[in-house]
Specification:
Strand 4, helix 3 and strand 5 form a beta-alpha-beta unit. The radius of gyration is 20 Å and the shape is globular. The model has no long low-confidence stretch (mean pLDDT about 95). By secondary structure, it is of the alpha/beta class. It has a single domain, classed as Alpha-Beta Barrel (TIM Barrel). It is built from 12 helices and 12 strands. The strands form 2 sheets. The protein has an 8-stranded parallel β-barrel, surrounded by 8 helices. Bound molecules: ligand PBG. The ligand NCc1[nH]cc(CCC(=O)O)c1CC(=O)O binds next to helix 6. GO terms for molecular function: porphobilinogen synthase activity; zinc ion binding. It is an enzyme of class 4 (lyase). Homooctamer. InterPro entries: ALAD, ALAD_AS, Aldolase_TIM. Pfam families: ALAD.
Length: about 325
């Protein structure tokens, strides 16, 4: 696009900013609660809620409490939730087999949400980190996260989530060939309409810190990193290759993660592929905005809206954000 305009004063660009009415009329991007996916944490227990200290405003909830909170979120207009389990340490193991236990926390939460609120879209996370004794998303052999054996486990996890009623499978593991393997298994087992929202461009980021506390994976990871499978934050072309690859294997939608530091990737992906594109405003992004707001250094409501609007401007169709209920309650749309 080449903007053309008459010279000043025929053109005064401030004219269309003069009142809120005209500002609204010419606003290019809109943000709506219906664009948001709410990531939620589930823990064992009954009638139990506990705050996640590094994520002010975020709770871990027992299955019953989660189902209640999710029903309220649905009433606020939030269309989808993404479930993350806080697995008790005695259920984390070398083979991570709790990941495909039909009775694991994530599957129980899926069923409870579907029972309480059938229209809510349930997304589930595919990766072994809440179940492995290493805190890694896959199996570790000789210090390396092995690909192909991990994919076999991820396929079992996927099927158990679909069986429990998940609508959207969210592979966050970054193994090679997992989308194709999952898609084939879903087709074969009668889950033709179960969607895959691929974490296609997921970076090895320090912004996941508070999340690893929230799901209890930080301790097992022992300060290790995920650089042999998650992307180098310095790369962009590689993100396009990953998105192309995941689409060719049967992903329905793609995600960029983290969000705010990677808006350039969102824009490139949307322009290049034109597919449903999501960004994950991750735990660390949320934590830093909330921490500054708590200190009175930033206006919390305003930075919430501005940070979410940035994703729409960058071309995203939707955003995974811990702010979802707060945005829905306070604004609904912007
Ligand atoms: N596979 C795990 C997973 N799924 C979502 C997040 C991060 C979400 C967040 O920080 O909010 C992570 C963390 C990681 O890769 O270590």
């Amino acid at each position: 696009m080449q903007p053309v305009h008459a010279p000043f004063p025929a053109t005064r660009l401030r004219r269309t900013r003069v009142s809120s009415g005209i500002r609204d009329l010419v606003q290019e991007n809109k943000l709506d609660t219906r664009d948001l996916i709410w990531p939620v944490f589930v823990c064992e227990g009954e009638n139990h809620e506990e705050p996640v200290p590094s994520m002010p405003g975020v709770m871990r909830r027992s299955v019953d409490k989660l189902a209640e909170a999710v029903s309220e979120a649905y009433d606020l207009g939030i269309p989808a939730v993404d479930i993350f389990p806080y697995t008790p340490s005695d259920k984390r193991s070398a083979d991570a087999s709790e990941a495909w236990n039909p009775e694991n926390l994530s599957n129980r939460a899926t069923r409870a949400i579907k029972a309480a609120c059938p229209e809510m879209l349930v997304m589930t996370d595919v990766a072994l980190d809440p179940y492995s004794d290493t805190g890694h998303d896959g199996y570790v052999k000789d210090g390396y996260v092995v690909n192909d054996e991990t994919v076999e486990a991820l396929v079992k996890q996927t099927l158990s989530q679909a069986e429990a009623g998940a609508d959207i499978i969210g592979p966050s593991d970054m193994m090679d060939n997992r989308i194709g393997a999952m898609r084939a298994a879903l087709e074969k087992n009668g889950f033709q309409n179960v969607m895959i929202l691929s974490y296609a461009a997921k970076y090895a980021s320090a912004f996941y810190g508070p999340f690893r506390d929230a799901v209890g994976a930080a301790a097992s990871l022992k300060g290790g990193d995920k650089k042999t499978y998650q992307m180098n934050p310095a790369n962009t072309d590689e993100a396009l290759r990953l998105v192309a690859r995941d689409l060719s294997e049967g992903a329905d939608m793609v995600m960029i993660k983290p969000g705010m530091p990677y808006l350039d990737i969102c824009r490139r992906v949307k322009d290049q592929f034109g597919v449903p594109t999501f960004a994950y405003q991750v735990s660390g992004e949320y934590a830093m905005l909330q921490a500054a707001a708590q200190n009175g250094w930033l206006d919390g409501d305003k930075v919430m809206v501005e940070s979410l609007m940035a994703f729409k401007r960058a071309g995203c169709d939707g955003v995974l954000t811990y702010y979802a209920p707060e945005f829905a309650r306070k604004f609904g749309s912007a």
